[in-house]
């Protein structure tokens, strides 16, 4: 009994310690985009001390994830689930400078502590399988053919001591074909301290998130240390970013199919002359700010603030000019000095609603220009060969951009490195600074290519290379082979900013899958014909038609007689020899 | 104390063994498998998801449900209702909802993975959520749906599982003591042929249609654009929703099977009793909740004295302390070993890395050298031929 008591006292001591050192923050930032879109960025962040993580004292850090990280000796983890395409020309720079998004599908990279490469591979296998169970995604398909070890592109974002840093192995894997759906959001929400029941996470709903024009869910675990102290912490950051179409989100969930507006609800331009009353010039409302509210966009109002986010004063912020009218349900408003950002202090345990009425506004919150525009597509034709072209534009009129372009291609897309060409504004010039390459091995590993390029100000680089398509074995084709094979997006790293191109769909030569049966049937027929005719030639004796009549029982009798006499003669010879 | 427990154990075991065959299940599991890919097979995913919602409603937790979905219907670009799957044109219940855990999805749904799941022949890296962790006291509901034929069921339109494979998998499960009782349900064309080869005990099997009979879809939703549920599953669900409303329900398997109306289902559902102890009568009396719910009878052992649990707790505490000491000793030993080792390993710490490609700016120079070498060689050769002649 006394032991139990002492244990309890010890536990209580740890708990107070943990409470003093762990904290949790959450924030939602809304930003209207053109035309009629809304970017919603959810950010959830909590810290735990390294000591309490090692002792498995979990408070805000999810236990399920913590145990996986400890089991797989993972020191830093980055997991991404993304869908859709970011339209940089209209939407500007990416949220979080692109650091919290992945390529289409699932992307995972981690720093694993291990003595050797083989040990690192083993732990990576453990990690991907465990995460596949936790996040209901096929992460176990990240095998050796989809794993790369980038040299230039990824740098650890956390702090690692020199002794561990020498043992860290960076492993990176992508699944461009993976679907992202509600079963991935469910475990994502369960990792949050408020579990989607209160606070900004109560707005996260699969029905809206997976209807977005672009969305990205991210999970990062990084160790952070204050400089010059041993006081290290482990930080877990979960973000969700989505670009919602306001018109589309406002449709009722049970009747989402767009139907024509009834004539009495049409808004007509009354300044135009009308000949009859059943005609209507629709009023141009694109200049007007869209009308929306939180409950219309996300399906319901926000269920109070999360009580665990103690120090959080501003859980909801919106990036609009101060002139924009916003009505809220009793939240206190704080406007900042820049003129474009305001935040709301919520009353706890009360639902929060925010309504933006239609309004004519002359100014808009400025868009941040991206450092680089990137697009990538297939060139060439035919079933045997192809090419890839990446167009990279530096929009800045003054600054050059130094970046790393990384491709990880599947083994069946065989890259010819000698065809890699970079043209700048149409002329071939030396823009490639550095290049790292690891060729593919059939069925064992994919191609890895990293190119460091320097683009001068206001110019465009076109990077092209050719490849050959491999022919797969019959059993290597997926059930929907005719759909094509997804090629992972290229990752472009500019310092701490990253950009990902869209994924590509590669059509491979696919057989007609009933072909083996055709072949079996045809081969059997030919074999039967050949065997039949050869057998005929061997056992039948061919004679002319007029000879055929003589060919009767008498002939048979003669043959038998001849055979008997031959046998008798031989027998006689033998007996004479014996004598 | 410890010795005391050890002494009591055989007595308790002997008591258990001598009890009449009151062997009951102590856990419930469900394996729900859809085997069809592609959008036009929406109804097969809706079938399996409606069963998923039913067993979840009746109490089986997500950790004890293995759900296999070979394609993505909810977030499919063709779906006008994103994040949603409906099994009825009235669209009253969203089967995908806000809380769903899919264990095997997409290309993971294969015959191999299904048989590995049943027989638990998986790698050590396989997470627990993807394993069927049953024992000889587990009741399992196995529900399958897809496109099939005489003694086979297609997986993803690319491979098949035969009735023999399935029967052998169940036999292995029985040999490995991985189930107590199984209720096998299948909704596909010629479904009854799929269970005809079973030979392991304690299985009740039912299917939607006889040999040479098709199973049909029930109805289509015009806004979804495809059929949303199959007839056999529809009428099973209908019964489960109207008659089995809460986990305390006393409806039996007999009640469910009697509700099958061939005129409505448009095929002849079959039931196989002969593998079940007690035959048809024994099977008919089993509660539906033994398979669709998570209700177990509790056996209460009489409490001998009040201080016993405290003593047990103390013994447990001692055991934990002992184990902890041992673990610490092991760790210390490991540390001693590991301090000696790195000296040896330092030499072979070469990393797998991409090779740096040298970009050569001097190619013109090299070409000139090459040309000179070639010219020199040909000069030597010419000179030699001249001398010889």
Automatic annotation (TrEMBL), chain A:
Keyword field contains Membrane: yes
Which residue ranges run through the membrane?
Answer: 517-539
Listed GO cellular component terms? GPI-anchor transamidase complex
Q: Does the keyword Ribosomal protein apply?
A: no
Q: Which UniProt keywords apply?
A: Membrane, Signal, Transmembrane, Transmembrane helix
Which residues belong to the signal peptide in this entry?
Answer: 1-20
Which Pfam families does this one have?
Gpi16
Choose any GO biological process term that the UniProt entry carries and state it: attachment of GPI anchor to protein
Protein's recorded name: GPI transamidase component GPI16
From TrEMBL, chain B:
Under the heading Pfam families, the entry gives: Peptidase_C13 (PF01650)
Extract the Gene3D superfamilies matched here. 3.40.50.1460
GO CC: one term?
Answer: GPI-anchor transamidase complex
Write out the GO MF terms. GPI-anchor transamidase activity
State whether keyword Nuclease applies: no
Q: Name one GO biological process term.
A: attachment of GPI anchor to protein
Signal sequence annotation: 1-23
**Keywords, comma-separated and alphabetical:** GPI-anchor biosynthesis, Signal
Q: Which pathway does it serve? A: Glycolipid biosynthesis; glycosylphosphatidylinositol-anchor biosynthesis
PANTHER family from the xrefs? GPI-ANCHOR TRANSAMIDASE
The similarity comment for this entry is: Belongs to the peptidase C13 family.
**Entry protein name:** GPI-anchor transamidase
What's the source species for this entry? Amorphotheca resinae ATCC 22711
Q: What is the lineage of its organism?
A: Eukaryota, Fungi, Dikarya, Ascomycota, Pezizomycotina
